[in-house]
Amino acid sequence: MVSHFVRKKISRYFTKENEIAFNNHIPSCKLLEEKFRGIHELGIYLHIPFCNQICPYCPYNKEIFNKEASRKYKDAVLKEIDRYAPILANKPVTSFYIGGGTPTTMIGNGLGEIINHIYKRFNMNCYVHLESHPNHLTLDNLDAMEKMGVKYLSVGVEALQDRHLKYIERPYTVAQVKKSIERAVARNFECINIDFIFDLPGQTEAEIEQASREMVKMGVRQAATYPLFRFPYTRLGREINNNGNAIVAIFRRRKFMKVIEGIFYDSGFERSSVWAFTKKGTNKYCSVTVPLYLGLGASGGSYLKDVFYVNTFSVIEYIKAIEEGKSPIALSIDLTEEMQMAAWLYWRIYETRFRKSDFEERFHTSFDRRYGNQLKLLTQIGFLKNGSDQIHLSDNGSYWIHAFEDFFSINYISKLWGTSGVEPWPERVVL
Ligand SMILES: C[S@@+](CC[C@H](N)C(=O)[O-])C[C@H]1O[C@@H](n2cnc3c(N)ncnc32)[C@H](O)[C@@H]1O
Ligand code: SF4
Fold first, then answer.
1. CA distances from 342 to 281, 336, 348, 405, 421 (A)
2. Closest residue by CA, ligand 1 atom 26
3. Sign of the dihedral through C-alpha 353, 358, 362, 367
4. Can you give the three-state secondary structure of 232-245, one letter per residue?
5. 319 by DSSP, 3-state: which?
6. Alpha helices of 137-204 — where are they, by DSSP H?
7. What are phi and psi of 50, to 5 degrees?
8. Which of 43, 52, 75, 118 fits as disulfide partner to 95, beta carbons 3.0 to 4.6 Å?
9. Cβ 401 vs Cβ 411: under 8 Å
10. Proximal ligand: closest to the CA of 56
11. What residue's CA is closest to ligand 1, atom 6?
12. End-to-end CA distance of the chain
């Protein structure tokens, strides 16, 4: 109750809105054409909603892989691409990310066809960033990924002690996952990222230190180390939320994060986002890198300056809508200038550095005039360095400011994704 009140107050302070709500107003093709006209470049996110297993902590939109469903899904995505081709009107696409679910379930089941179609129909000026599951990194699949133009690969390793892998129900051992990574590292990817989850129940500082050293030894060029986020609509999220104290967890995670930071900095890595460390001189693996993007597939979300909208989360309903020539968009929200600024700032803070001039170019107003007071306070307590143009968050700053943001984002995501996961076409979702 108290947290709900505080959340509302702070949200109102930053967005000037009493209520942030998505509704089922679907933007028409004509309106989307107008929106895209004002955009110079964009990113593409493609969602593959299939997995071979359902992990007990995972908040993402997914269902168990099935060959027939994936074939129909591929056909629907091809048609959705065709719907957008005239709307995008040859705008350069400078970032392409395929996430899930587990996109590698569709290797040999239509993923190559979708990627080819995207490169044929859109003005692609970038390589593919792809999420993968360790058990899918066979020699044949690695060949296929290279042929598809994947240059940036992420692998969901998650833990490097067998007892933790078992607890989070991952279907491999440490020895097996190391072999998978070895096979991938031997290829020519620009950047391989390992996803790692820390602050698992009972995990010790010594275990986190050992796992971090192992990640460095594996020869990957990036590691994204996330604390276990407790989404209340996942089984593990519910179990841990009932047993753990959230405030104690925030301080414990900071201690763990310091161990991780120390090891990666000593090994030639630098911070590339709140949770990621990238080897110096490497282009980072990351989700869509440009501020405006189009989302394809079930639950794909699109952000076009003053509107954010999401497709239905239901795979069956997504396929049905496309087959019937209807829009798969389920929910949208019009964003006021204040909300756009808050969203812009959220993502730049996530990246831990940004330029005030980029804000000014986007919003035609002075960054210092808008956020000067907050900036002064955060600089005084050592959370960021405020240069004449460049703003750089310190390690403490990126941790604590993001912990503050998580107070909102986990709650917002849980409401939007939690509702959309059970209702294919919700009327309204209030965040
Ligand atoms: C879509 S999955 C990665 C690809 C593949 N599905 C897999 O599991 O290997 C994206 C990543 O999100 C992270 N993740 C999922 N649920 C999480 C949670 N509750 N807390 C922290 N990280 C989480 C995991 O690190 C996971 O690798
Ligand atoms: S963590 Fe990966 S494999 Fe597990 S359910 Fe989520 S998306 Fe699927």
1. 31, 10, 10, 11, 26
2. 156
3. positive
4. CCCHHHHHHHHHCC
5. helix
6. 139-148, 162-167, 174-185
7. -120, 145
8. 43
9. no
10. 2
11. 102
12. 15
The helix (run of H) or strand (run of E) holding residue 290 is: none
Among 55, 234, 299, say which to mutate for ligand 2: greatest number of ligand atoms within 8 Å of CB. Answer: 55
Give the span between the Cα atoms of 282 and 198, in whole angstroms.
24
The SS3 call for residue 199 is coil
Answer yes or no: is the C-beta of 58 below 6 A from any ligand 2 atom. Answer: yes
4: three-class secondary structure by DSSP:
helix
Nearest to 212 by CA among 193, 225, 203, 229: 225
Q: Is residue 310 in contact with ligand 2, taking CB distance under 6 Å?
A: no
What's the token pair of residue 356?
A: 């005030």
Using DSSP, state whether 120 is helix, strand or coil.
helix
Integer Cα distance of 237 and 247 in angstroms: 16
- The candidate with the shortest Cα–Cα distance to 131, out of 109, 152, 110, 158, is 152
Task: Answer yes or no: is the C-beta of 100 below 6 A from any ligand 2 atom.
Answer: yes
Question: Count of residues for the chain?
Answer: 431
Ligand 1 site, CB within 6 A:
51, 57-60, 99-100, 102, 131, 133, 156, 158, 195, 197, 226, 228-229, 231
Cross-strand partners of 353: 392
Under 8 Å between Cβ of 132 and 101: no
What distance in Å separates the CA atoms of residue 356 and residue 364, rounded to the nearest whole number?
11
In whole angstroms, what is the distance from residue 244 CA to residue 248 CA?
8
Global pTM reads 0.93
- Asked if 195 and 156 touch (Cβ cutoff 8 Å), the reply is yes
Q: Tens digit of pLDDT per residue, the chain (431 long)?
A: 445 555 555 556 656 666 789 999 999 989 999 988 888 899 999 999 999 999 999 999 999 999 999 999 999 999 999 999 999 988 999 999 999 999 999 999 999 999 999 999 999 999 999 999 999 999 999 999 999 999 999 999 999 999 999 999 999 999 999 999 999 999 999 999 999 999 999 999 999 999 999 999 999 999 999 999 888 889 998 887 766 677 888 899 999 999 999 999 999 999 999 899 999 999 999 887 777 899 999 999 999 989 999 999 999 999 999 999 999 999 999 999 988 998 888 888 888 999 999 999 989 999 999 988 888 899 999 999 888 899 999 999 988 887 877 777 787 888 898 899 999 999 999 88
- Please name the residue that has the structure tokens 């509107």: 307
